[in-house]
Amino acid sequence: MGRGRVEMKRIENKINRQVTFSKRRNGLLKKAYELSVLCDAEVALIVFSSRGKLYEFGSVGVERTIERYHRCYNSSVTNNRPEESKQNWCQEVAKLKAKYESLVRTNRHLLGEDIGEMGVKQLQALERQLEAALTATRQRKTQVMMEEMEDLRKKERQLGDINKQLKIKFEAGGHAFKSFQDFWPNSAASMMAGDPNNSKFPVQPSHPDSVDRNTEPFLQIGFQQHYYVQGEGSSVPKSNVACETNFVQDWVL
């Protein structure tokens, strides 16, 4: 006995409706799988039950198939309706042009140009815009000045620290120079008491024939011009002769 023809209408019995859904759903998913395998087709199947439960099948992934569908649909719409697409682009260009003209006009108004035809309300709105812009500009200027002042204070502190370090180094150098000054006379005296030939400062001894060898030598500093007196033996500096004469006179007296 064959199956009878099923009437295409909603099944009122809830249990029978659920059983029919399960059977036909499984058959539909099976048919979609067979179609993708046998015919090498890209198949995507999405089913929602009456309770909102999702059942899906995709031979290469449902999302990928849906994206491909959107691309094909948009391309077909564009190709089938070139006049409508052109009209949309013309409208978009007109909107952009109107917006550009409005911005240019607003810029001129802010600069004080082309305000002769403006009404009271428009002028008041422009005044509020200018006051807001002026307030924002002053706030930004104050902020920049405060930041610059803070930078200058930091530089001042850095220079003060460097000045203190240089002052400490200078005071240390001054103590070293004072110690050198205290050390210099003793060093000079010891150099004069030593061998005059090894000393860096030449010591001129007295004449060996007229002055005692134990006489303390003197330090010759600077340039002295000597005049030589011709004698029978060797020439003797005139300054030395004068010194010897004075020394002999004092010794006789």
TrEMBL record:
It is found in: Nucleus. Residues 1-61 form the MADS-box domain. CDD domains: MADS_MEF2_like (cd00265). It comes from the Eukaryota. InterPro entries: MADS-box/MEF2_TF, MEF2-like_N, TF_Kbox, TF_MADSbox, TF_MADSbox_sf. Residues 86-169 form a coiled coil. One of its GO terms (biological process) is plant organ development. Keywords: Coiled coil, DNA-binding, Nucleus, Transcription, Transcription regulation. GO terms for molecular function: DNA-binding transcription factor activity; protein dimerization activity; RNA polymerase II transcription regulatory region sequence-specific DNA binding. Its main location: nucleus. It comes from Brassica campestris. The lineage of its organism: Eukaryota, Viridiplantae, Streptophyta, Embryophyta, Tracheophyta. This is Agamous-like MADS-box protein AGL6. GO terms for cellular component: nucleus. It holds the Pfam family K-box. Residues 86-176 form the K-box domain.
